[in-house]
Every structure is written in structure tokens, then in C-alpha cells.
Q: What sequence folds into this?
């Protein structure tokens, strides 16, 4: 168990480091300099050179890298080239928005997907066919299109939920919840489909296992075979898919945040990409990676709790 | 973009198929696959040729007809500037359709060779590559793409190539599993031994076996790529106006969703249908499309075929199988006319080569035949009731409580996710109605009864921590939790080491002696039978050819097949010289559905004559047993027995001896 955790921990640190290196190199590989970005299109070359000098852009690359790493460890991500705001403070406000969408959507996908997967695996016949076909379609739908459809139906036609916008939790908890509902549902449709497929496949595989035959030979009640043994067997692939799902949702939230005007990490990433705000870009990549890596570590603990082989190792 | 990188569930078959050349027709024979392939071809051709056939230019505005619904002039309607949607949608298709292909090519161009190298070079190289790819997998790829865009600007083909690099980690992971499993096949080694170079081995032998999985994953990835290109365009990272893109057209529609909801329909549908088609194609290639999902629901046993009230022939028998026929539903018979009887406290051996129907017969006693196989006739009398045609519910009252079973592979017979304690106490509580603590005490006692000294430690263990012999002891303890009267042991020692085999047999013998348990033991090993059985039924090609007490059958076999088995048996009694050569039985057991009329062994029998090829009944033999050989008396009279080196019966080159190869 401990070696396992240590290995995963090393993996996590390595991943964050890789994200820093990749984004750092990316930013430094370009012709555009931060001075040019900060001063806009009307700046003279001399002023740009001076600005770059002031930003420390001309120092040797390793020096800049280790400076950045040092700041990063202290929680300093630098300031935006566009408006000079502190990137760390800005992202700290945004992470909860994205995280709550991704977390809600992952949980809802998990619950719905497992229910559907169980129904497909255990009922068979027409129910199974409907769920398999339906999930095949659902996971192919572009999330931004689904989002618009949901807005049309739930907000415009039925008037149940607000169409766009974000209400901070501290201002109005109920408003916060309803403002997240459509984005979460939009993300859940595809997510639940993937979980349902995984659960279905896992349960079918479980029921074909030799140990299930042993259980049958012992006269074990069918409900216990299905809901205790088969479900436990299928829980490992489901959990790992939920983890991947969270990563995908966290990264993919850019689109949904754009569509619903949610002030999350993705929106910041989009703005930074559009304006070549390099420090903000690196900051978004690093923060997103840290969150993803933390969630992965959490999942490793869940897997360790579920799988005796991991626990014993 | 909330799509995960590839089917992480691995539910698309990661089992490599045999090198198949007829894959494409197979895919197209399915309606879904055909439709999907048709749509993809249509959309690609229509998009690439759009400049030549589109009714309007992409920037051509018809200001009188803004936000129009479909009409004769604008088949799909118009956008807020009155531009023709049909023309724009198909013109816009080129970029996503091509750039997504770039992602697929790059991802496979990197992931596949890495997987082949890792599979070929062994664990150390594999570990290094796998660690690196794990890091890539954990990176939030969409956000990284944004960083790339921020640096290099909107250059879609380069961006999608970068995406291909990021996704190659996922491709590598899936392909590695497949490549490793292909590499373990013998023919790959054989090719290497034959001196083929590494590249040639991969191209000629490994890649063709991976073709199906590659096609499935590529089709899925293509769909994901489409969604990502469209997603980026939706965010404004796509072709600049007035050039159309699917994503931006949907973004545009989102601001008109109140006034002109139609606007989002055509573009969204075309994009959705294309992605659905890619995924459906993947499903069709994988052969797991919706229509093919077989229900897992337990099949009810078929209705009783014959009245059950036949008085038992042997009043003392606790189990009597009579004229049992087992068949594949709508298929050939697997077992026909099998009869045997078992008295309390005795051990019956079902012996024969692999594929004789021994295991099917044993499993039918508990109603545990595989899906699609059922008892078609005959009776299984168990303590006065016929088990054939019972419902699952009625059978589950018998299972474990009256008849229990231990299986061939103890290592997989226990649930890997639960401790031994849980797996033992659960049935103990159910069968004996005791509490948790008492159940645990009984479990420990049962473990000690099956010869496990440190029962407490084993109780706390999980199956993967047990050795094969230990696992089989736990399985036996599990079988004893319901204090059954009959134990069915299907090759209980086959998977174990030789020394452990002997221990398990000793244990079974002690249990029979101490508890009065009856046992049906399935084995291909005559040594096991001689060791432990009181009675024996020799099976060949789905039927019992000879039965009787073990002593009588083994000492004076009357059926040529039994004689051949004994002659081929490498177990030699103490004090007898090992024969210079063991006999073999030419040929193999004929598979179900191709059994000859008359004696099924005739084609491999040294003594076969014309009369053997017509049907004939079994004759009584060995006291309570029988023999199914029309020449049995004649052969016995002439003192003929199976010859290790039969004159004039040279085996044909194509056949391989299967008997006597005691594993």
C-alpha cells in the first residue's frame, strides 16, 4: 500500500513538473514576446525591447525556469500581461466554479451511468438494446450543441432554469445551484453514456467469471451475485472511467463555461489564449494540472480501498 | 470536448482477433455499420466537392431571406446574414474531416510503434515508456491545446497534430495490451526463430492480428477529433468569418436560440450524425453493436421432457442419472444417453479424454450448464426428485445445501474482491442460520478440517494471496459449508502441482471416510480414479462406454477404449517395470455433431469391424455396470487387449494422440 502511494505521489509531482516544462518551453519557443503582447500593436520595437528587458525575458532560460518554479512553490503565478492582475488570485476565484461543475457532472454521470449500466446488463433484451444504442448516440453529441438544446427547452420553453450566468454560492446558494444545473446536465449526458457502457461491459464480464459460477453452485441468491459480487467486480473499471471523466470534464469545461458565461478556469484559458497572455496561459495549465493530479491521487485511494490486490501490495 | 480520450473501459475488445482478411464485408453486413460507413463516405465526398456543387457561395448574402426556414431555394434555411446553410455546412466540413484524420494519424503514428517496441523489448523498456505516457494521460489536454493556440495562433492542422501527440499516450496504452497478448502467441515466436527480422515480424505477424482493434480505436478517435475541432471553432479558434466552420455556426446559432431555434438544427445534426457514424462504425467493427447484446438474464431450464415418476433402478442409490441427453440449443447433442448411479458414501469417477462430455454431465447435476446449453432428455434422480426441468429457485435450494461443487481452477473460483472470511461466512450464515461470530468460528473449523493449520491467517487473506493448493482447500471448505451429501469435483487436481494433487486427493478420501459424503469426480487421469474411486464410468464422445466398480473396470476392462486408456496411462504400479513405450490412441475424439452411428470409437479402434458401425445396445457388465461394445464378449473370449504398437494401424500424420498425456 505505501509503496503504491509513494509511486503515485511521485507520478503526480512528475506530471505537474511536465506541465510546467511543456507550457514554459511552449511560451518561450514563440516569436511573439511578452513585451509586444503587453504594449499592444502600436508599440515601437525599442519600447518592446525595453519592456522585455524589464520583464526579465532576456535572461538565460534556466534562470527564468527556476525562478518560475520558485515562485510557483510559493504560490505566485505572476501577473497578467494584459491587465496586470495577480494570476494566482484570479485563478483561485475561478477554480471553485470549474471544479464544482466538473464534480457535479462526474457524480451525476456516475450515478446515472451505473443505474443505466446495471439495467442494461441485468435486464437484457429490449432495455439493454435501448440503453446501448442511446448511450452510443449520447456520447457522440457535441456538448455545446446539447447545451443550446437544453437552454432552448429548459430555459426558454419551460422557463424552469436560468439560461446563462453564474451566481456565486456566497450570494445565493439556491441561485448558485440552479445556475449550474443546465451546464451540469449538458456535461452529464455524454458522461453518463460512457459510464453506462463501462458498467454494462464490466458487469457482463463479471457474470462470466469463474467465481460467479462458484457462487451459483453454492445456491447464492441471484441478487447477492449481481449487486454484491458482480457490482464490486465492475466497480474498478467504473471508478477509473469516472476519473478520466473528471479530467476530461475539467479540461473540457472551457466550452461549457463559454456557452453559459461561467467565470471558470476554462474561460480564463480561452481569454489568455486569445490574447497571448503568456503568464496567464502557463498559470491555467499548471493549476488545471494540479487539480487533475489531486483528483487522480484521490482516485488511487478509492481504487486501493476497492481492490484488495492494490491494498496488499 | 467532454469526451474521454478513447474508450477507457477497454470494453471494445482488446482481445486480438486472428489475422482476418474478410473484416470489411463483415462490418458492412450489419445495418448500423453499413449506414455509418455510407454516411461518412457521403459527408467526406460532399464536403470535399462542395465548391463545385454548392448552390450559393459561402459569403453570398440573401438579405431578404435572413434566418429563413428550409425552402425550395435554401434547402436547410439561411443564417442571420441570409447565407445559405447547406452551402456553408458542407463547405465547412472539409477542415474538421481532414484535421481530425491528422489527429488519428499522428496519434497512431506515435502510439502504435511505441506499443510494438514496448511489447518487443520487454518489461524494462515498457516501464519507461509507460511512465512517460502516464504523465501525458494525466495532463488536461484541452487546456494545453489552448496554450498552444495562444502561442502559435489558430493553425488548426498543427493544433490537431499536437492533439494527436497528446492522445498518442492513450493509443499506446490500448495498443500495448493487444500487442503483448499477440506476442505471447506461439506463431510469433516461431516466426522469430525462423529468422525473420523484428520489423518483418511486426508487420507480417503482429500488426495483422491487431487490425481490428486499431480500426475500432481509430474510428472512435476520429469522432473525438471531430468534436474537438468543432469545439475549438465554437470558442472562436477556427476559420475566420466569412469562412464557415461547424463550431462557429453553432456558436452563432446560440445567440439566436430565442428568435430562430431552427438555426442550430442543421449544423448540429450534421456534426452529431458524423460523430455517431464514426462511433457506430467502431462498434460495428468491434462486433458489439446494440443488436448483438445477448441478454444475461438466467435462462430458465426447459420444461420437463418426460414424466419424472420413474422408480429408481437401484433403490440404494442416492443419485441416479438415467438416459441423460444434453444439447446445444438448436445445435448438436453434447451428451447422449448417459446413465449411472451413485450410492451414499461412495466415490464415482467420470473418466475420459477432453471433449467427452464429462464436465457437461457433472455441471448438469446442479443445473449449471453454460448459456445456450440445456438438458434435452432423461432424468437426474436426486433423493427421489428429478432435478431436470427444475426452476432456478428450486435448484438453488439444492445447490450448496445438498449438492456442492469444486472446480478445476481454484485460483479463479474464489471472488478476488472479497476475503476468504467473507466468502466462507456468507454461505455459513445462510445455510446454518447462525450469527457473524459463530459463522466465523465455523469457518475456521472448516479450514482446519481441510488441513489448513493457520486458519485465522487464511481467513484474513484474499484469494490472490493463496497458493493453488491452498485455494483448492478453501474451495473444498466452501463446498462443505452447507454440509452437502454429494460433492461434485470437476478435475479438482488438474491445475495443481503433482505433490499438491496427492494432498488434495488424500483430503477428499478422508472427507468421504469421515463424513459419509458421496463424490462424483471428473478426471482424465486414471491414476486419480484408481486412487480414490469406488465406481467408475468411462465416457467417450458424449456417452458412457463402460461402467462398473473401479476395481472391476480397471482390472478387467472390457471396452477397447478403456483398455486403450489404461495402456496409455503413464501411472505404473509399484514394482512393475515401466513399459518400453506407452500406447497411444490414434486420432482425436470426434466433435459433437459428427459422431458416427454405431460405436463412436470405431474409427479409432484396433478391433473395429463392420458390425461396429450399426447401432447396438449396452450390455450389463462388472456387476452393476455396463459395457457398450458389440464385440466385448468376443474380445474377452479371445484374450485380446489394446496393443501398444498396433500392427497395421499406423496413425495418419494429421492425427495427434490425446490420451495418456497426463498433465
A:
Amino acid at each position: 500500500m505505501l509503496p503504491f502511494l509513494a509511486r503515485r505521489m511521485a507520478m503526480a509531482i512528475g506530471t505537474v513538473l511536465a506541465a510546467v516544462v511543456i507550457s514554459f518551453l511552449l511560451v518561450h519557443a514563440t516569436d511573439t514576446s511578452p513585451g509586444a503582447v503587453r504594449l499592444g500593436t502600436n508599440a515601437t520595437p525599442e519600447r518592446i525591447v525595453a519592456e522585455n528587458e524589464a520583464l526579465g525575458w532576456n535572461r538565460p532560460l534556466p534562470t527564468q525556469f527556476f525562478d518560475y518554479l520558485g515562485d510557483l512553490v510559493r504560490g505566485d503565478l505572476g501577473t497578467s500581461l494584459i491587465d496586470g492582475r495577480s494570476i494566482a488570485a484570479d485563478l483561485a476565484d475561478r477554480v471553485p466554479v470549474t471544479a464544482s461543475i466538473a464534480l457535479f457532472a462526474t457524480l451525476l454521470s456516475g450515478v446515472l451511468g451505473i443505474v443505466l449500466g446495471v439495467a442494461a446488463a441485468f435486464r437484457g433484451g429490449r432495455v439493454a438494446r435501448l440503453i446501448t444504442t442511446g448511450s452510443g448516440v449520447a456520447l457522440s453529441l457535441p456538448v455545446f450543441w446539447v447545451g443550446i438544446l437544453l437552454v432552448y427547452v429548459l430555459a426558454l420553453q419551460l422557463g424552469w432554469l436560468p439560461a446563462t450566468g453564474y451566481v456565486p454560492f456566497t450570494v445565493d446558494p439556491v441561485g448558485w445551484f440552479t445556475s449550474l444545473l443546465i451546464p451540469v446536465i449538458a456535461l452529464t449526458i455524454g458522461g453518463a453514456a460512457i459510464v453506462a457502457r463501462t458498467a454494462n461491459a464490466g458487469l457482463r464480464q463479471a457474470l462470466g467469471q469463474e467465481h460467479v459460477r462458484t457462487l451459483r453452485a453454492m445456491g447464492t441468491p441471484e441478487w447477492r451475485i449481481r449487486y454484491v459480487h458482480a457490482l464490486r467486480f465492475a466497480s474498478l473499471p467504473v471508478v477509473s472511467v469516472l476519473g478520466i471523466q473528471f479530467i476530461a470534464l475539467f479540461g473540457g469545461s472551457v466550452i461549457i463555461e463559454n456557452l453559459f458565461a461561467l467565470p471558470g478556469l476554462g474561460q480564463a484559458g480561452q481569454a489568455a489564449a486569445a490574447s497571448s497572455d503568456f503568464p496567464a496561459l502557463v498559470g491555467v495549465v499548471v493549476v488545471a494540472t494540479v487539480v487533475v493530479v489531486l483528483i487522480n491521487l484521490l482516485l488511487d485511494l478509492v481504487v486501493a480501498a476497492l481492490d484488495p490486490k492494490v491494498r496488499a501490495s | 470536448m467532454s469526451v474521454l480520450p478513447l474508450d477507457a473501459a477497454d470494453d471494445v475488445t482488446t482481445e486480438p482477433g486472428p489475422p482476418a482478411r474478410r473484416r470489411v464485408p463483415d462490418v458492412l453486413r450489419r445495418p448500423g455499420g453499413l449506414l455509418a460507413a455510407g454516411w461518412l463516405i457521403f459527408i467526406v465526398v460532399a464536403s470535399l466537392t462542395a465548391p463545385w456543387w454548392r448552390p450559393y457561395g459561402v459569403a453570398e448574402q440573401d438579405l431578404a431571406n435572413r434566418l429563413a426556414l428550409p425552402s425550395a431555394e435554401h434547402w436547410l434555411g439561411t443564417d442571420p446574414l441570409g447565407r445559405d446553410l447547406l452551402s456553408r455546412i458542407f463547405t465547412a466540413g472539409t477542415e474538421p474531416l481532414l484535421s481530425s484524420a491528422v489527429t488519428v494519424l499522428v496519434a497512431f503514428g506515435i502510439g502504435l510503434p511505441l506499443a510494438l517496441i514496448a511489447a518487443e523489448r520487454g518489461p524494462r523498456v515498457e516501464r519507461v515508456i509507460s511512465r512517460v505516457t502516464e504523465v501525458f494521460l494525466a495532463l488536461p489536454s484541452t487546456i494545453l491545446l489552448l496554450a498552444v493556440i495562444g502561442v502559435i495562433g489558430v493553425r488548426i492542422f498543427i493544433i490537431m497534430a499536437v492533439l494527436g501527440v497528446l492522445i498518442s499516450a492513450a493509443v499506446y496504452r490500448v495498443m500495448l495490451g493487444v500487442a503483448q497478448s499477440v506476442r505471447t502467441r506461439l506463431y510469433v515466436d516461431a516466426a522469430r526463430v525462423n529468422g525473420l527480422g523484428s520489423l518483418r515480424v511486426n508487420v507480417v505477424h503482429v500488426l495483422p492480428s491487431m487490425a481490428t482493434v486499431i480500426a475500432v480505436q481509430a474510428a472512435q478517435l476520429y469522432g473525438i477529433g471531430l468534436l474537438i475541432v468543432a469545439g475549438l471553432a465554437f470558442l472562436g479558434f477556427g476559420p475566420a468569418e466569412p469562412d464557415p466552420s461547424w463550431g462557429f455556426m453553432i456558436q452563432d446559432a446560440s445567440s439566436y436560440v430565442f428568435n430562430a431555434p431552427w438555426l442550430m438544427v442543421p449544423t448540429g445534426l450534421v456534426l452529431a450524425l458524423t460523430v455517431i457514424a464514426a462511433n457506430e462504425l467502431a462498434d460495428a467493427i468491434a462486433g458489439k453493436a446494440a443488436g448483438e447484446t445477448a441478454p444475461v438474464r438466467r435462462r430458465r431450464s426447459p420444461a420437463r421432457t418426460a414424466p419424472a415418476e420413474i422408480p429408481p433402478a437401484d433403490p440404494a442409490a442416492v443419485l441416479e442419472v438415467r438416459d441423460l441427453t444434453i444439447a446445444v440449443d438448436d445445435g448438436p447433442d453434447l451428451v447422449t444417453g448417459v446413465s449411472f448411479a451413485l450410492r451414499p458414501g461412495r466415490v464415482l469417477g467420470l473418466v475420459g479424454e477432453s471433449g467427452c462430455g464429462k464436465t457437461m454431465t457433472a455441471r448438469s447435476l446442479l443445473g449449471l450448464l453454460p448459456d445456450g446449453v440445456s438438458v434435452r432428455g432423461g432424468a437426474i434422480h436426486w433423493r427421489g426428485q428429478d432435478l431436470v426441468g427444475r426452476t432456478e429457485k428450486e435448484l438453488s435450494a439444492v445447490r450448496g445445501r445438498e449438492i456442492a461443487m469444486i472446480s478445476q481452477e481454484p485460483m479463479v473460483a474464489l471472488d478476488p474482491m472479497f476475503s476468504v472470511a467473507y466468502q466462507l461466512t456468507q454461505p455459513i450464515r445462510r445455510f446454518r442460520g447462525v450469527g457473524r461470530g459463530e459463522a466465523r468460528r465455523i469457518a475456521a473449523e472448516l479450514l482446519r478440517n481441510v488441513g489448513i493449520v493457520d486458519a485465522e491467517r487464511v481467513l484474513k487473506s484474499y484469494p490472490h494471496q493463496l497458493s493453488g493448493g491452498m485455494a483448492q482447500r478453501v474451495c473444498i471448505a466452501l463446498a462443505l459449508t452447507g454440509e452437502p451429501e454429494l460433492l461434485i469435483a470437476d478435475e479438482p487436481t488438474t491445475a495443481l502441482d503433482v505433490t499438491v494433487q496427492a494432498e488434495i486427493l488424500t483430503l477428499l478420501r478422508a472427507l468421504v471416510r469421515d463424513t459419509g459424503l458421496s463424490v462424483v469426480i471428473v478426471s482424465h487421469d486414471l491414476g486419480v480414479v484408481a486412487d480414490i474411486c469406488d465406481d467408475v464410468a468411462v465416457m467417450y464422445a458424449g456417452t458412457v462406454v463402460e461402467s462398473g466398480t473401479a476395481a472391476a473396470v480397471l482390472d478387467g476392462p472390457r471396452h477397447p477404449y478403456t483398455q486403450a486408456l489404461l495402456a496409455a496411462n503413464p501411472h505404473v504400479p509399484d514394482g512393475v517395470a515401466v513399459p518400453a513405450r506407452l500406447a497411444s490412441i490414434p486420432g482425436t475424439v470426434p466433435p459433437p455433431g459428427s459422431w458416427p452411428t454405431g460405436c463412436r470409437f470405431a474409427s479409432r479402434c484396433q478391433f473395429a469391424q463392420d458390425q461396429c458401425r450399426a447401432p447396438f445396445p449396452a450390455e450389463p457388465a462388472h456387476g452393476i455396470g455396463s459395457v457398450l461394445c458389440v464385440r466385448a464378449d468376443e474380445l474377452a473370449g479371445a484374450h485380446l487387449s489394446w496393443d501398444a504398437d498396433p500392427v497395421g494401424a499406423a496413425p495418419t500424420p494429421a492425427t495427434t494422440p490425446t490420451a495418456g498425456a497426463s498433465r
User: Anything to note?
Assistant: The first helix of chain A runs from residue 2 to 28. The CA atoms of residues 116 and 196 of chain A lie 6 Å apart. The two ends of chain A are 5 Å apart (CA to CA).
